[in-house]
């Protein structure tokens, strides 16, 4: 990825079996702001309370950030309903890709937040993380991916939304070795 990372995903939608990832836009800010009023979420994300105006400014700054790529996590079942509801009503969390070393764009960190308590424990965060790893170019870090070739098996696992047993524990190790040989 690189300069103006969020601009690269401004027209990108990532489809999974359980979740849909869409770029974080000003349309999402009111719901995001409501989530961040939760003391528990602020504690878990090491976030400070912001006013709605500050939240809009933060969202705008993320669009210009060189080291961050943010998607809003939508519930795929709700989002695919007909007629299609507003994205804000399908929001369940967010996922971020941080480039931790601008000298080495193949090194990054993924954070995921499932803010809606009723949506936790269903594999949505796991799938969002896997989609983000695939989007960031780290297929060899995914389950079934070949670390030597970055084979298509890893990408297929993401597209199908396949969850692994003990997904959270396994995911931590994938993120821990999410060092990519391909430029993002």
Strand content: 15-25%
**What percent of the residues sit in helical stretches (DSSP H or I)?**
25-40%
Instruction: Please outline the major beta sheet.
Output: 5 strands, antiparallel
Q: Separation of termini?
A: 4 Å
Average predicted confidence as pLDDT: 75
Could you give the order of strands across the largest sheet?
Answer: 1-2-3-4-5
Structural class: alpha+beta
Q: What form results from the Cα inertia axes?
A: globular
Tally of helical runs = 8
Radius of gyration using CA atoms only: 16 Å
Low-confidence stretches: 1-6, 145-184
Order of helices and strands: HEEHHHEHEEHHH
So what's the oligomer here? Answer: single chain
Total count of strands: 5
Structure description:
With 184 residues, this protein is α+β, with helices and mostly antiparallel strands. The chain contains eight helices and five strands; from the N terminus they run αββαααβαββααα. The protein has a five-stranded antiparallel β-sheet with strand order 1-2-3-4-5. α2 (29-35) packs across α4 (52-64), α6 packs antiparallel against α7 (152-160) and α6 packs parallel to α8 (167-176). Mean pLDDT is 75; it is low at 1-6 and 145-184.
């Amino acid at each position: 990825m690189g300069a103006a990372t969020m601009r690269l995903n401004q027209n990108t939608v990532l489809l999974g079996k359980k979740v849909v990832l869409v770029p974080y836009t000003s349309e999402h800010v009111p719901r995001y702001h409501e989530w961040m009023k939760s003391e528990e979420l602020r504690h878990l994300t090491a976030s400070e309370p912001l006013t709605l105006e500050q939240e809009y400014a933060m969202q705008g700054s993320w669009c210009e950030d060189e080291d961050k790529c943010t998607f809003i996590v939508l519930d795929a079942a709700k989002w695919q309903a007909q007629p299609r509801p507003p994205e804000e009503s399908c929001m369940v969390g967010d996922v971020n890709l941080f480039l931790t070393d601008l000298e080495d764009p193949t090194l990054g960190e993924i954070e995921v937040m499932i803010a809606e308590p009723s949506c936790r424990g269903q594999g949505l965060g796991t799938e969002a993380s896997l989609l983000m790893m695939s989007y960031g170019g780290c297929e060899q870090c995914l389950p079934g991916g070949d670390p030597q070739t970055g084979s298509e098996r890893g990408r297929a696992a993401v597209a199908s939304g396949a969850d692994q047993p003990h997904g959270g524990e396994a995911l931590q190790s994938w993120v821990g070795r999410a060092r990519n040989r391909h430029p993002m």
